[in-house]
Amino acid sequence: MILLKDCLRVARPYGADLSGVDVLVEGNRITRIAAGIAPPRGAQVVDASRHVVLPGLVNTHHHFYQTLTRNVPAVQDAKLFDWLVYLYEVWKGIDEEAVYWSSMLAMAELAKTGCTLSTDHHYLYPKGFKDDLPGLQFKAASRIGLRFAPTRGSMSRSRKDGGLPPDSVVQDEEEILAACEATVDRYHDAAPDSMRKVSLAPCSPFSVSEKSMRDAADLARRKGVRLHTHLAETADEDDFCVSMYGRRPLRVMEDCGFMGKDVWFAHGIHFNDEELDLLARTKTGVAHCPSSNMRLGSGVCRVREMIDRGVPVGLAVDGSASNDSSDMLGEARQALLLQRVRYGAAGITAKEVLSLATEGGAGILGFEMIGRVEEGWVADLSVFDVGKMEYAGALSDPVAALLFSGYDHGAAHVIVNGRFVVRDKRLVGADEEEIRREADKASRRILKMAGVE
């Protein structure tokens, strides 16, 4: 049991925030929210009198392996396609150690910035990879303590087929389909409070064939899992799809059966009005990645209009080679500011952003009863200390202060499924220095192999 005592503020992005209440966690559920709860015998009591309690933040798109190739000088100023072509020559050296430690690093960063649930889109399968790649990631998630809902990604179109990646990191379509089915059968847990779910995620319309997209959609519906891919990220992608398929990217997806409430797309910057209406009608979701979109100069997603139309939207940090971090609270701040660049000072509110970052993201990943601080809901919580210098003068609205003020995005405590994952700003289940050391070692190894010094 955990008792958060005398909370300065409990954030409820869907309604009125609460002040001065206690939050009791028993098992993996929030069982009571009230003032003056007497600590049950054996409960771990946390003084939250200077803290804001948020629903755990949810990350709806990432590429964990990219934590090892952040800030590479040659592509600091490159746009997406050039950036990809260069980095594929580095990423083709990814091995078992690199997958494990990059996953540890990404999830550690996410957890320490308030994230309790994340997906990952790993679509790169170098030839000669011996281990069970999804198994390595689930092992890392278990050690960090994060609720993990990765996608089994794939690429079938290499340079010889008109794609961008080298031959050594793509798979043939039959191999992809068999591996996807095996991953779902082995790891997917459909329970509402599952710690592990699996979705299927062909990388993008320029990395797989239409057949691969249709096969993934058919398999996902047969297995009852969700679908994901990159879409409408850049103008170059629009041009590629029109040239290759004679249609815009979203029409390609529609023709492949890759639309609906069980589907979400990463980025979605370049949808037109008609396409936004189609997303709204079909309840197809979008993972908004503001930092990456700014970093690569890809454009500004029309989140305000998506919300107004009823398109499901979540937030995401995207890959750490285009962000270049895994800072979930920082991503929420970026989302707030970037929408205001496009739509003006009232373009989006702090409450709306926090709703996207919590319940919105949980819904996109297929989780119910996650994303609210509410009695009966799953106990995924992030607790932030605002009794610090950088929040002085900002506490007339402590919840909004997390987005408008401050610069240290580290959570004081993070609870996942009723257990501490972060306590007093430190990981509970893993050694942070070991993660830093081993991830840095893996990074240096693959960079050196690719001739990047």
Polypeptide structure, described:
This protein is α/β, with parallel strands linked by helices. It has 2 domains: 2-55 and 371-427, Roll (Urease, subunit C, domain 1); 57-364, Alpha-Beta Barrel (TIM Barrel). The chain is 37% helix and 18% strand. The protein contains 14 helices and 20 strands. It has helices at 80-91, 96-112, 133-144, 173-187, 210-223, 235-245, 249-255, 273-282, 290-295, 303-309, 328-343, 350-364, 398-404, 432-449; strands at 2-7, 9-10, 21-26, 29-34, 44-47, 51-55, 57-59, 115-118, 121-122, 147-148, 151-154, 199-202, 227-231, 263-267, 285-288, 313-315, 381-385, 413-416, 419-423, 426-427. Strands 2-6-17-18-19-20 form a 6-stranded mixed sheet, with helices on one face. Strands 4-3-1-5 form a 4-stranded mixed sheet, with no helix packed on it. Strands 13-14-15-16 form a 4-stranded parallel sheet. Helix 8 (273-282) links the parallel strand 14 and strand 15 (285-288). Helix 11 (328-343) crosses helix 12. The longest helix is centred in the last third of the chain and has 18 residues, at 432-449. The relative contact order is 0.17.
